[in-house]
Amino acid sequence: MSFEQAWLNYTERTSCEGADRLQNIYADVQDELMRNSVRELQLGLEGMTGRQPVLREISCNGEGNGVHFVYQAGMRKESYHLYEKDGMVTIEASDSNGILYGTFALLRQIRTKDTIAGMDIAKAPDMPLRMLNHWDNMDGSIERGYSGESFFFVENEVVVDDRTVTYARLAASVGINAVVINNVNVKDAATWLITERYLGKVRELAELFAGYGIKLFLSLNYAAPVELGELESADPLDERVKDWWKKRMEIVFGEVPGFGGFLIKADSEGRPGPFTYGRTHADGANMLAEAAAPYGGLIIWRCFVYNCQQDWRDYKTDRARSGYDNFMGLDGTFLDNVILQIKNGPMDFQVREPVHPLFGGLTKTNQMLEVQIAQEYTGQQRHLCYLIPMFQEILKFRTYVKEENDTVSDIVSGKTFGQHNCGIAAVANTGNDENWTGHDMAAANFYGFGRLAFDTKLTAEEIAGEWIAMTYGRDGQVMETLTDLLMRSWPAYEKYTCPLGIGWMVNPNFHYGPSVDGYEYSRWGTYHRADHEGLGVDRSHDGTGYALLYREPNASVYDDRNKCPDELLLFFHHMPYTWKLRSGKTVIQHIYDTHFEGVEMVDEMVERFSKLQGKLPAGPYDRMMERFTHQKEHAREWRDQINAYFWRKSGISDEKEREFY
Ligand code: GCV
What we know:
This protein is of the alpha/beta class. The chain has helices at 32-49, 96-112, 162-173, 196-210, 224-227, 239-255, 281-292, 319-327, 358-361, 388-396, 408-412, 443-454, 460-472, 476-496, 554-559, 569-572, 587-610, 618-650; strands at 24-26, 54-56, 66-71, 80-85, 88-93, 120-123, 129-136, 153-154, 157-158, 178-182, 215-220, 261-264, 298-302, 338-343, 367-372, 423-427, 534-535, 575-576.
């Protein structure tokens, strides 16, 4: 059994009532998206019912046994209406993208539900842009990749093959409509992606993606005019630089029809940017946006900008403030085809962070949320960590920028400010491993991210259930066990790693495994500030003032140690070990207890999982068991290192007198 198809693995016969009557597809096939929709239906129905439906190339006349694709003017972009009546299934949409999404919705229904009778599902995607950001390098390596090598690049060449097709199918099936294929750290060969050297292949890939409703984007090297040896400056206000980009954009968009635009990491972690010329991010982004505008191109500009040369003795500089401080003053100065892409938290994808204060801060700028399904700080796809519950919390966060429609979800879906250039991006977790994501269950994050971006009302449990049923079928024990493991995995990971919002206690560079002081005396601005009396970073009005960057009442809540939620207490405050949390426990006892609890949770999870032997296919079962076994040991290492460190620092014993290693 191959696992290359992941959740599109239609190898089992379905028990879904009504599916076997779908023997025809009535469609007026006019483009590649429609052709692919027909192909998907044929593939899926053949796998699940044993019979391939026949394409009748006519528009629906309201009769016939099967699925009807119907163009219906006036519906929202990319939306679909899928319903069953008298044994006939209709998929209505005003564009072929909607037909494709309706097709996948039908296949999902057949794979995950008992019947299609009476089905009536109307859905327009919540987020305009539902994007994956791959951090793939052209030599084939992947920055923060935990599932093998790149399938987009091998030895500095762009690859388009069968795996690319499967990737596009998987992405489209969950509603992804935009993909950046190369790392935001654009160097060496990747700088040349916008040149004739690669544009032919880029076009091939863009065309393939277009057939699945996906727009191709590239990450851009801000200093390309210089690094390609054509100009001596990349000053955004220099006319020669502007002209250079205008010509480049004309070539790129001309060579690659339907090309989406660019993602840019500038003036961040050593990447070039407008600061070199004394210019602002708005100068840089707008210069590119002007050049891309005639082609409808987007410039997605990242806000991950901070000083990575900090002196740890400096208690005033606060990395958490930097995104806000760099961009807030520029609100309203960006062109309409610029989107600011903002990480979910102000630091860097820790297991727990507050929501980035630019959400709710910015009111006149297009915004996109950036999350990370590559598990850089959350167990690197060796530990199970289902991130959808975390993303839901972030999306639901109230910013108070308005009296209503003020959540992060409202902002990035365009509801709050009526924007259309907005959405959500995830740093992708895929590679060329057979199962795509290293840990088989990490595929739930890929699946779940797309589904959540399309439909923010879905719960994390619903998404988990769908993914399990799609991938492994609907056996009750399998469904129940895997849902339970997924749902407990983020809380467990948080418990046995970094307590109370503190983050960062990881091995430098790799970001895997515990090292409490790994970043404590370094230049990266990521400190826990533990001493013999307490720990945490004072970001209150007495400290760096970061807490006050939020709108009220959030600012007052975070600023006050008595009101700050426990799970973020050490992010915002330097607290004595003896401080009593809401739970009634002291900070130090909480640290000890949660680390023991986290390990116990993992033990229980692995025990439960072991009961699925024989119920899950052997390949995935064995691979997962191997990872769970490692997770079990590694969670102990986390527990012991963290507990021993804080026991020695504080000199306070565990009330329960457990043994520390
Ligand atoms: C792509 C963190 C990661 C880097 C990453 C960077 C970013 O610092 O560790 O690998 O670079 O974030 O988001 O740009």
